[in-house]
Automatic annotation (TrEMBL):
SUPFAM superfamilies: PLP-dependent transferases. It comes from Ornithinimicrobium pratense. Keywords: Amino-acid biosynthesis, Aminotransferase, Proline biosynthesis, Pyridoxal phosphate, Transferase. This is ornithine aminotransferase. GO terms for biological process: L-proline biosynthetic process. Belongs to the class-III pyridoxal-phosphate-dependent aminotransferase family. PANTHER family: AMINOTRANSFERASE CLASS III, ORNITHINE AMINOTRANSFERASE, MITOCHONDRIAL. InterPro entries: Aminotrans_3, Aminotrans_3_PPA_site, Class-III_PLP-dep_AT, Orn_aminotrans, PyrdxlP-dep_Trfase, PyrdxlP-dep_Trfase_major, PyrdxlP-dep_Trfase_small. The keyword tRNA processing does not apply. The keyword Transferase applies. Its cofactor is pyridoxal 5'-phosphate. It comes from the Bacteria. One of its GO terms (molecular function) is pyridoxal phosphate binding. It is an enzyme of class 2 (transferase).
Length: 415
């Protein structure tokens, strides 16, 4: 116990007050920018001192429709007045309609609702293993899953077991066996790693945490074919890449590819409640039977109502088209910085990874400078920066983001 304090949560006014308080009582598993958000609307957030920022991170794509989108807030409010939690011991009137909407959106028969992204990935891995034993005929206890170097799929013990990021992985063993990691985008390496026991390949269509790493052209279609040929399930983790971010509903669709299982999360909760899901066709999903998997909160009526409202927003295609329309402008503005303090810029839809010259500044420093100019972004590894503004951003507002970044690198070059 730290010594009792009478004013631990009183007399809070400046950003620094809240930061000092948090630092004292909230676990140090993050290292946030020194901005304390009090209020948010659309693409804008306001801190406790009244400073306004353009949110160019969107909660790692959990806020694809911006903060407090009116249709999503309305869906949540309406549902708050009806029912919020039933547990799956009973049916509720929101789950079925949500599953229909999501299934139609992503082209799958069935949905298994969970809450967080990591849970959706865990669920997909369990489904794949069970499918391996029941359908493919893999020997008991032998199921093998191929994953990609540089992956990020969440923070549970099994998932970090196959992470090659020392920060995420180290000192959390013993680790879950049954996974082989191969270089991202290397089809030959995947083919070589497949054995008679392989049940699935788990892949991010674009590696977000890796700095928006886009695989080589032809990789995803090639992986699709390979999985079909070798009777292996293709699991696409669309938790960050999906739901409109790249200009298509799913990032796999940008490459014309259909996976066997999709994991979805982040934007599926509209920035209001955690909602995640696995989507698959019946022949795969039906290996799950009563009692063999579950979640107290998964599929709750509040989450389902918000999730369905998210699906309704995406069903018109308007947000996907908007992201696709702005891709060119975004790429052009960022490519113009390459050679001028930026080493490489990768853009797909409204999503960008920017490698700043490490001699110039770290990604964290760039984010601090951007915040001073009123733009919130997030570094990934080293000097890489990630931009993922809400899909509701206008062309003019997007220009504010890229102009601010241009100023930051120019000022850094001038020392
Ligand atoms: C964020 C993320 C996850 C984990 O989601 P949580 O809701 O944080 O558990 C899994 N996969 C990908 C690709 C992600 O970006």
């Amino acid at each position: 116990m730290t010594e009792p304090s009478t004013n631990l949560s009183t007399n809070l006014s400046s950003n620094q007050d809240y930061i000092a308080l948090e630092d004292r009582v909230a676990a140090h598993n993050y290292s946030p920018l020194p901005v304390v958000v009090e209020q948010a609307e659309g693409i804008w957030v306001t801190d406790v001192e009244g400073n306004r920022y353009l949110d160019a991170l969107s909660g790692y794509s959990a806020l694809n429709f911006g903060h407090r989108h009116p249709a999503l807030v309305q869906a949540a409010k309406d549902q708050l007045d009806r029912s919020t939690l039933t547990s799956r011991a009973f049916h509720n009137d929101q789950l079925g309609p949500f599953c229909v909407a999501l299934g139609e959106l992503v082209g799958k028969d069935m949905i298994l609702p969970m809450n967080t992204g990591a849970e959706a990935v865990e669920t997909a891995l369990k489904i794949a293993r069970k499918w391996g034993y029941q359908v493919k005929g893999v020997a008991d206890g032998q199921a093998h899953i191929i994953v990609m170097d540089g992956n990020f799929h969440g923070r549970t013990t099994t998932i970090i077991s196959f992470s090659d990021d020392p920060e995420a992985h180290d000192e959390y063993g013993p680790y879950t066996p049954g996974f082989t990691s191969v270089p991202y985008g290397d089809l030959a390496a995947i083919e070589a790693a497949i054995t008679e026991h392989t049940v699935a390949v788990l892949v991010e269509p674009i590696q977000g945490e890796q700095g928006v790493k886009i695989p080589p052209e032809g990789f995803l279609p090639g992986l699709r074919q390979l999985c079909t040929d070798r009777q292996v399930l293709m699991i696409a983790d669309e938790i960050q890449a999906g739901l409109g971010r790249v200009g298509t509903t799913l990032a796999c669709q940008y490459e014309g590819v259909e996976a066997d299982l999709y994991t979805l999360g982040k934007a599926l909760g509209g920035g209001i409640v955690p909602v995640s899901a696995v989507a698959a066709d019946a022949e795969v999903m039906n290996v799950i039977t009563p009692g063999t998997h579950g979640s107290t909160f998964g599929g709750n009526p509040l989450a389902a109502a918000v999730g369905k409202a998210v699906c309704d927003l995406l069903a018109t295609g308007e947000h996907q088209r908007h992201a696709a329309d702005l891709e060119g402008q975004f790429r052009e503005a960022l490519q113009a910085l390459v050679g001028n303090g930026v080493e490489e810029a990768r853009v797909r839809g409204l999503w960008a990874g920017i490698d700043i010259d490490p001699e110039l500044m770290t990604g964290k420093d760039a984010c601090k400078q951007l915040a001073k100019k009123g733009v919130l972004a997030k570094d990934t590894h080293g000097s890489t920066l990630r931009l993922a503004p809400p899909l509701t951003i206008t062309a003019e507002e997007l220009k504010m983001v890229t102009d601010a970044l241009a100023e930051v690198v120019t000022e850094a070059q001038q020392g």
